[in-house]
Structure formats: structure tokens, C-alpha cells
């Protein structure tokens, strides 16, 4: 299930909608009653804080996996006044709104992982993670960190985008696909692309695109970008056709080039590019439902946050509002050869 659930928070009744949606979501992932209750409380606290301090925002939920245990990532996003003195705000009893002030402190205690990013006059983004049945999913051993937002166009039952990340052997491979148009037929096209990577998780990106071109011939087609990362060798490779943006963010920013065309129908050229994949670097891919005029330098301190928080902030600030949108952010956590762990 690659789709992100989105709950708009603009009035009091929507807090209850989000809480009920979270409980149903947790049940589908086999969370026990206690952990489902924690998620429901976390969503309620986050949504209530949005209304109190920002008047409007969104709560997003996404399934995650770790050590064969299901988890749920929650993002709470707003464009409110921001939070000054974050350390104080996390203490129970501290409030700037004349309330008991247990919200942020409660979120911190409820979660297995908690992070917050806030800027004056630009808003606040919160990320927390809960594992099913109180079991730690243990993703610390992975050599990458992943954050994703994948949201359908308003009014559509499913996103026309799809994405997949596969860790196989020495490689971490990633694919993002944007089916032509919206809705179910677009979803069929993008899902056909992710199935190609699932069946060939260590293939080179140009080969993945070639295979996708054949696999999508009976669909309406898609824009597709494929990446293969080799953390041990500190190398990555990329190939793309269509309007998927890909940027490597580190000491410098590098944009990876996709060629024009529609995979499955009109592919004139498939070209693979190599790039350094160094410790702590970020790779950000997104469909054209996200605007392109973003710069991480406009968000001091965000680049060192969890990729899920980075994806959430970009979605919050640059989502176009008239298309499906997918943002995938992956960080290289592998220790560079010769450095100390």
C-alpha cells in the first residue's frame, strides 16, 4: 500500500474524522488495541494543535515496514506562525494558547520516533512513528533512510502515481512513475512500472526503463525514473523518461536529466547517468504534481531531518493542487569507507 492517507484539518469535526480514519488504518495493519489507541491519541493531539495554532493544516498517514513489523508514520503539517522555543514546547504544561500544553509532550511520549521542524511565520511540520503492537521495527541497521508522500488528485479514488524502493544485495533501487492523466487507468500504468522493478530489483536503470516500455504498452503510459544506488561503492546510476524531477542534495546540488517521452508509447532515447552517492547525501525524486522552484537552502536545518519530514515540508509548500503528487526522499546512511562508524 504505497498511498498516503490525507486528512484535512480546518474545523473541529475533522479532528474526529482523522481519529477514526487512523483507527481504521491501524486495524488494517493488525495493530493491537493499545497501539491503535496511541495512534488515535497522537492524531487527535496533532490535529487539535493545528486548529489551535494555525487554524488549518493536514495530517498524513503512511504505512512503513521494518524487521517484518508494520508501522505507521504520521506527518502533521501547517503553515501557521511556527513554534518559538521548541525545547520548552515539548515540556508538559507549557502552552502559548492558554491550554494545558500537553500536546507536543504527549506526541513525543507516544511515539517510537519523533521529529519536528518549525520556522517563524512559515509553519510547523511534525513526524512521528509508531510500530504495531509496541514492537520496535528496528530500521537502524539499514544503510538508507526513506521518506515518502504519495497523494491522489482531489476527487480521484487512487493516485495515478506509484513508487517502489527495493533493497537487494548491495543495491538499493528506487522507481517513481507518474501514469498519464489521473485515476484508475493512470494507476494501472504506474503500477505496471513498479512491478518491473519488483521483478528485477538489481537491474541497471536503463534496463528497467526498457522493460517498462514494453510492460506499459497496453496502458496509457507513464513518466518513469529509475535509480540504482550502491552505498558501498559510493555510486548511483539514474535513467528517466518523462517529467520526473530528480536531484542529489549534499555539499552541492545536482539535477539528474530525464529525456522527453512517454514510457510505453514514445521513447526516443534512454540514457543512464552515474553520480556520486556519498555518506549523508539526499536523493529527492518527485512527480510534476509538485512545483520545481524549491531549494532546501530556504529551510535551514531541514536537510538533516528525517527524509519523511523533508518530503512532508516540500509537499506542504509546493503541491500544485491539481494533480497527483509523489515525493520520495532517500538518505545515504552508509558509513564512508575508511571513516569511523
In short:
By secondary structure, this protein is of the alpha+beta class. The protein has helices at residues 13-28, 33-53, 86-89, 103-110, 183-199, 205-215, 307-318, and strands spanning 5-9, 57-66, 69-78, 113-119, 123-131, 144-151, 161-168, 171-179, 222-230, 235-241, 245-249, 253-256, 261-262, 266-267, 273-276, 282-286, 325-332.
Topology:
Elements lengths: L4 E5 L3 H16 L4 H21 L3 E10 L2 E10 L7 H4 L13 H8 L2 E7 L3 E9 L12 E8 L9 E8 L2 E9 L3 H17 L5 H11 L6 E9 L4 E7 L3 E5 L3 E4 L4 E2 L3 E2 L5 E4 L5 E5 L20 H12 L6 E8 L9
Antiparallel strand pairs: 1-2, 2-3, 3-5, 4-5, 6-17, 7-8, 8-9, 9-10, 10-15, 11-12, 11-16, 13-14, 16-17
Helix and strand composition category: alpha+beta
- The percent of residues in helical segments reads 25-40%
Secondary structure: number of strands: 17
Shape: globular
Largest sheet: 5 strands, antiparallel
Radius of gyration: 20 Å
CATH topology of the largest domain: Phosphatase 2c, domain 1
Which architecture of the largest domain does the CATH hierarchy give at level 2? 4-Layer Sandwich
The order of strands across the largest sheet is 1-2-3-5-4
Would you state the CATH class of the largest domain?
Answer: Alpha Beta
Looking at CATH, the homologous superfamily of the largest domain is PPM-type phosphatase domain
Low-confidence stretches: 93-101
First-to-last CA distance:
34 Å
Share in β-strands: 25-35%
Overall tally of structural domains: 2
Helices and strands, in order, run as EHHEEHHEEEEEHHEEEEEEEEHE
Number of helices: 7
